Amino acid sequence: MKPETDPISEDEWLLRRVHSTRYQKRDLPFLSPTAFEPRTTGDASDVDGISLYREACLSNPEDILTGVPPEKLAANGIVRVSVAKLRELGLTVEPVRDDIVGHCVIPELRVETFKAKKAEVTKLMGQLAEATSAQVAAVRIPPCLLDPA
């Protein structure tokens, strides 16, 4: 595991928790662009940018589900996006020190920017959805979306 104090490098992968309502079940892109939309209301609005987590800093990708109530776990998935792809799109990644190791944000995807430049941010969200759908990015599909066996 990489210490979270190490600089975020181009070859790293970041994880994003995605609610089942942000998946387009069988369509491509697999993820809706809204999977990367900043929360604009409430105490949990994304004033600093949308949250992701450095995979190299975690012992288990599902560590990012810490704090999700057990009854809501089935509705949450995890996708992976490369730092290199984010930088290719002109986005930056900044570390955040809190309870979950490896937490970071994309400051260009914060609520203030989303409200001021909605068309530009929506385009970036679409590009991220395409990128995470095109690669083997699904770390955890929300169990509630899986067909029963």
Explain what you see.
This protein is α+β, with helices and mostly antiparallel strands and 149 residues long. It is 19% helix and 19% strand. The protein has three helices and six strands, in the order E-E-E-H-E-E-H-H-E. The chain has helices at residues 83-88, 111-116, 118-134; strands at residues 13-19, 50-54, 76-82, 94-95, 103-106, 138-140. A six-stranded antiparallel β-sheet has the order 4-5-2-1-3-6. Strand 4 and strand 5 form a beta hairpin. The mean pLDDT is 89.
Key traits:
alpha+beta; six-stranded antiparallel sheet; 3 helices; globular; 149 residues
What is the topology?
Elements (H helix, E strand, L loop, with lengths): L12 E7 L30 E5 L21 E7 H6 L5 E2 L7 E4 L4 H6 L1 H17 L3 E3 L9
Antiparallel strand pairs: 1-2, 1-3, 2-5, 3-6, 4-5
Overall mean confidence score, pLDDT: 89
Low-confidence regions = none
Assembly type:
single chain
Q: Which structural class fits the helix and strand makeup?
A: alpha+beta
Give the biggest beta sheet. 6 strands, antiparallel
> Treating each run of at least 4 consecutive H or I residues as one helix, how many helices?
3
Total number of beta strands: 6
| Separation, N- and C-terminal Cα atoms | 35 Å
Please tell me how large the radius of gyration is.
Answer: 15 Å
Strand order of the largest sheet: 4-5-2-1-3-6
Name the helix and strand elements from N-terminus to C-terminus, one letter apiece. EEEHEEHHE
Strand content: 15-25%
Helix percentage range: 10-25%
Question: How would the global form be characterised?
Answer: globular
